[in-house]
C-alpha cells in the first residue's frame, strides 16, 4: 500500500492523515471547502500530502477514508465511491444529523445505512469507536492497541485491516456491517474502552491520555457488547 485518499479534514481525517504520512504513505485529502482551505494542514503534513477535490481523493489510492458527518454522505456526488474500498469512520449523532428512523428502529446498523447511501462502495467500518485525540496517543502503543474492523467484502476488509496495522494498531475482525453495532456509540465497545480512567473520561474526555487495549480484551468487549437503544440517544 502506497497511497490513500481522505475525504474529510476534521478531527479524525487529520489524525489518520498524520499517521499515514508518518508511515510513508502518500496522502490526498479533501474537504467541503476546497483545496485552498487546506494550505496550513498540508504545510504541517509535508511533501507526502496534497490537497485535492473530493473526486480526486476518492480514487487517489488503494483506499478512500471517508470521515465526514453521516448527514453529509447523501450529499457526496453520485457514484463517487463506486468500486472503491472505503474506510468509513461515521457515527450517528442525532443532534447533528437529525433523527433517522431506520437507525432509531434498529432496522439497520449505521454502517448498513451508510451502504444504502453509497451502494457501490466496498464499505468497511473502522476508526469510528475511538476519539480523535486518542488516535495519536495509542498508535504504536506497547502493548499494541486493537481496533475493530467490520465489513461484508472480504477483500476490502483485508485491505483496510492492512492499513489500520500500518498506521500502528492491531486489528480485530468484528464481523459484518450488520454486526458493527457492537462498536457503535453507547455499545460496550465504544470510545471509553480506550480511556486511561473511566471516570476521568466521563468527566473530561479530552484530558484523558488513553491506555493501550490489546486485541484479546477487545474481543471480549465485542462479544459482551449490547445493542444500544439508539432511539434514546440524545447526543
Ligand atoms: N471526533 C471524534 O472523536 C470521532 C470519533 C469517532 C468517529 N467520529 C466520526 O467520524 C466522522 C468525522 O468526524 P470528525 O470529528 O472528524 O468531523 P469534523 O471534525 O466535524 O470534520 C468533518 C469533515 O467533513 C468534511 N465534510 C463535510 N461535508 C463534506 C462533504 N460533503 N464533502 C467533503 N467533505 C465534507 C468537513 O469539511 P470542512 O472542513 O470543509 O467543513 C470536515 O473536514 C463523523 O461521522 C464522526 O461522527 C468522530
Structure description:
There is one protein chain. The longest helix has 13 residues, at 154-166. The protein has helices spanning 11-22, 39-45, 54-59, 94-97, 101-104, 110-117, 134-138, 154-166, 198-203, 215-224; strands spanning 3-7, 26-30, 49-51, 63-66, 85-88, 122-125, 146-151, 170-173. The protein has a domain at 69-232: NAD(P)-binding Rossmann-like Domain (Rossmann fold). The protein is globular and about 40 Å long. β2, α2 and β3 (49-51) form a beta-alpha-beta unit. With 235 residues, it is of the alpha/beta class. The protein contains ten helices and eight strands. The chain has an eight-stranded mixed β-sheet, with helices on both faces. The structure holds NADP nicotinamide-adenine-dinucleotide phosphate (NAP). Residues 7-13, 30-33, 54, 67-70, 72, 75-76, 89-91, 93, 128, 131-132 line the site of NADP nicotinamide-adenine-dinucleotide phosphate.
Amino acid at each position: 500500500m502506497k497511497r490513500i485518499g481522505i475525504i474529510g479534514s476534521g478531527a479524525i481525517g487529520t489524525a489518520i492523515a498524520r499517521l499515514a504520512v508518518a508511515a510513508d504513505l502518500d496522502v490526498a485529502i479533501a474537504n467541503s471547502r476546497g483545496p485552498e482551505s487546506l494550505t496550513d494542514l498540508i504545510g504541517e503534513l509535508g511533501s507526502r500530502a496534497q490537497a485535492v477535490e473530493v473526486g480526486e481523493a476518492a480514487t487517489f489510492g488503494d483506499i478512500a477514508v471517508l470521515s465526514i458527518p453521516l448527514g453529509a454522505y447523501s450529499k457526496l456526488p453520485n457514484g463517487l465511491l463506486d468500486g472503491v474500498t472505503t474506510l468509513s469512520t461515521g457515527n450517528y449523532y442525532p443532534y447533528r444529523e437529525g433523527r433517522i428512523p431506520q437507525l432509531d428502529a434498529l432496522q439497520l446498523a449505521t454502517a448498513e445505512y451508510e451502504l444504502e447511501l453509497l451502494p457501490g462502495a466496498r464499505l468497511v467500518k473502522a476508526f469510528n469507536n475511538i476519539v480523535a485525540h486518542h488516535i495519536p496517543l495509542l498508535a504504536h502503543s506497547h502493548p499494541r492497541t486493537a481496533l475493530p474492523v467490520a465489513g461484508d467484502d472480504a477483500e476490502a476488509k483485508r485491505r483496510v485491516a492492512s492499513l489500520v496495522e500500518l498506521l500502528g494498531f492491531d486489528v480485530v475482525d468484528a464481523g459484518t456491517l450488520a454486526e458493527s453495532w457492537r462498536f457503535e456509540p453507547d455499545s460496550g465497545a465504544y470510545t471509553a474502552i480506550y480511556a486511561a480512567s473511566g471516570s476521568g473520561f466521563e468527566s473530561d474526555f479530552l484530558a484523558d491520555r488513553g491506555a493501550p487495549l490489546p486485541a484479546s480484551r477487545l474481543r471480549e468487549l465485542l462479544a459482551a457488547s449490547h445493542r444500544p437503544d439508539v432511539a434514546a440517544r440524545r447526543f
